[in-house]
What does this fold into?
Amino acid sequence: MLRPFLSLALALVLGFACLAQTPTGVIRLRVRVKVGESNKGLPRKRFFLIKGSLEQHKSLIEAIEQQTLETRDCFYKRAGASQALIQWLREHDCESVYCREIDLNDIEGPKAVPEFQQALAVGEKEFGSRSLAQKWLTVNLAAKIRDGFYRQRQEQLRRLIKQAEQLSGAPVLSVMGDRNGTAYFTDLEPGPYLISSLIPVELGNQRVTWNCPIQVKAGDLATERPYLVSNRADRNVKCVGVEKPLPVCELAPAALR
It folds into this structure.
């Protein structure tokens, strides 16, 4: 006879505990961009969610808008990279050589990348095996060619995230979109937030930066209409990025230190 009463008591306790919890919200981010005549989801780009209002983060937004980061092409040209490598990175919007597999077509034939060929040759002498040299090809690339641009961007992100967290007093959340440009921020406390790219995203001959306020309400669900982000204004777009032309690269590339 005691067991049914214990089960009922446990159910009541759990029920009251659930009621006592603050309801949380979810943001379903959907990023679509227009480049030329093409309108598509923006894949594999990271967005950040910063707690607080637009006014609270005025100095952060000024820092974001005034930053002078090199473009990917300018960085690699200044690093002395071949045009073939620059094109290889550009084809899949890569920040480093780790973002896609280096296959046989990248080493042999008309699209061969000289840096990959040289690294493969060094690896063959070191490992005594062509297949092993190809597997470990990236270790024989110069650091600035391998992931120098990525590391430069990460350092800038760390500075901006630190500034945002000092202003908000809360951790900055981040998500990376899938191949369709969809991502989720979950378990959010109700209140004002700022959705930001922090650093510019390169689109064609433009670079785009997003900084948009959003209000999260208790019980907001990801099954509701997504929060649409784009580089162009439209009736359904909630967050429009600021576009600026890509800067012209220096005419005389110099080796990076």
Notes: The longest strand covers residues 25-35. Residues 73-145 form one domain.
